[in-house]
Amino acid sequence: MTLLRVENVRCQFGSLVAVNNVSMVVEPGELRAVIGPNGAGKTTFFNLISGYLPPTAGRILLDGKDITAMPPHARVAQGMARTFQITEIFPELSVRDNIRIPVELAAGHRLRPWLSGADRLLVNETVDRLLGISGLSAKADRLVGELSHGDQRAAEIMMALALKPRLLLLDEPTAGMGDQETYDITQLIRKLHKDQKLTIVLIEHDMRVVFHLADRIMVLAEGAMLAEGTPKEIAANQAVQTAYLGTAA
């Protein structure tokens, strides 16, 4: 069954149409990229999918269930998690504690002042596993606010992964990074997709990342879908070259 189905969603603010009748189908195990120039409606589209904005029209289904009217926390419970363009972390806490919080939430321990020995052991094992996936084990007890931007982003992605999503939405995961940090985050995303079998939809401005990772790419321009296809098809699309990649692409 299709994991995510977006049907003709529209988002309008007064006379401004930010997203105009956009549809998308994401299959289980797929890594889909959404690209487009600034102002194309990419983040608004993500906010519609994740419930931070209500669509003016259209509907959104997750695993066949209509989630159009669900608030963000209810979508998390249905198996959706996301990161944001500006990293959302607790800078005054350690890396370990940043990851521990969503691990405990996912395990149903919200608002519990204490955990049994067995529960604490399971939480610790899960946190250690996520630290290992992210490559942050050696930095687990450092304040996350002291880390590089790339390491902070890796920690944020692990916080989302701790919620046990079936669908992970990444909003510009390499924004503001140098070449090495971009490479490291790209490798982490690839690991989540290939090794963890996670379905991922990402917005990304770095075309090296997009064409390296994506199974399929959707291009937005002025709030509407301009093109959709494999990386090879998108690279060869004249309309995309003109509108976004540049005529020399």
SSE pattern: EEEHEEHEHHHEHEHEEHH
Report the β-strand fraction as a percent range: 15-25%
Give the mean pLDDT.
92
Largest sheet: 6 strands, mixed
Q: What is the molecular shape?
A: globular
What is the number of helical segments per DSSP (H or I, 4+ residues)? Answer: 9
Helix fraction bin: 25-40%
Instruction: Output the radius of gyration.
Output: 18 Å
The overall strand count is: 10
Kindly name the structural category.
alpha/beta
Low-confidence spans = none
Could you describe the 3D structure shown?
The chain has 249 residues and is α/β, with parallel strands linked by helices. Helices cover 38% and strands 24% of the residues. It contains 9 helices and 10 strands. The chain has helices at 42-50, 72-77, 95-106, 117-134, 149-161, 179-194, 207-213, 231-235, 238-245, and strands at 4-13, 16-26, 31-35, 57-62, 65-66, 80-82, 167-171, 199-203, 216-221, 224-229. The strands form 2 sheets. The chain has a 6-stranded mixed β-sheet with strand order 6-7-8-3-9-10, sandwiched between helices. A 4-stranded antiparallel β-sheet has the order 2-1-4-5, with helices on one face. α3 packs across α4 and α4 (117-134) crosses α5. The protein starts with a strand and ends with a helix. The relative contact order is 0.17. The model has no long low-confidence stretch (mean pLDDT 92).
Summed up:
38% of the residues lie in helices and 24% in strands. By secondary structure, the protein is an alpha/beta fold.
Main features:
249 residues, alpha/beta, 6-stranded mixed beta sheet, 4-stranded antiparallel beta sheet
